[in-house]
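Appendix B, Record 12. Input sequence as logged:
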Amino acid sequence: MDLRLLRYFVAVAEERHYGRAAARLHMTQPPLSRAIRRLERDLGVVLLVRSAGGVELTGPGTALHAEAVALLERAELARSRVAEADAPLTVGVLGASGAAGARLAEAFRERHPATRIAFREADFTDPTAGLRGGLVDVALTRTPFDTTGIGTRVLRLDPVGAVLRADDPLAGRRSLTAADLADRPWFRLPDGVDPAWRAFWGGPGSRDGAVVRTVAECVQAVLWNGSVGVAPRGEPLGDGVVWAPLADAPPSPLVVAWRGRDPLVRSFARIAVEVFRG
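Logged structural output:
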């Protein structure tokens, strides 16, 4: 039985409407209708009947829907296991994910024990963590950046705060605003960085601060030069620096990002969403 036809049928059965199903499948309605008629001819039964609101399942259609969903899930699992045996999954990371990262590793190992994982740590010059350049298969990173051709799911929204030297006069404040830091040197990102990324992490202060590419460089710029920057809560900063909430800064979205439709990559993304949102 043609799995493609079954996938089309499941979409129509779940949407109860050819137009919505076609949109879900990223295709037009006429070829979808022809595919369903072909499936009905192959099986010798009527699966769907038109209704005032769209379509309804017949008795055979209801039975096929349950079997088709199970069959497609088994096919997806088979593809995933084949992919696992072929090559490691390369994960790009930018920044810290905290305790949830450890839970993600445990959950992924439970479902894909045979998969080898390789990691690539990125820096601030590439917020896609290697995804755009094809260096990784999936990434744990932060938006905003240009997501053309890249799928993302938000895992968590983290408050953003200023990174200050511990002896800074503002370090003891329970909350700050961008205006409080407007006269400070602000660390800068390298030239050529994604504009949306630069706009989010760039501060209101002067632009004569140090150019930084990593969290470690940020910390050193704060310690040695008195620069100011921003970071999401939970980023490990080390001794001598503090994190102070910025009341007027939007939260930083931690996301899982991917390209393409590889089943193992999609499984990683689904598990990440389950772990972080659970």
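Residues 90 and 118 are 5 Å apart (CA to CA).
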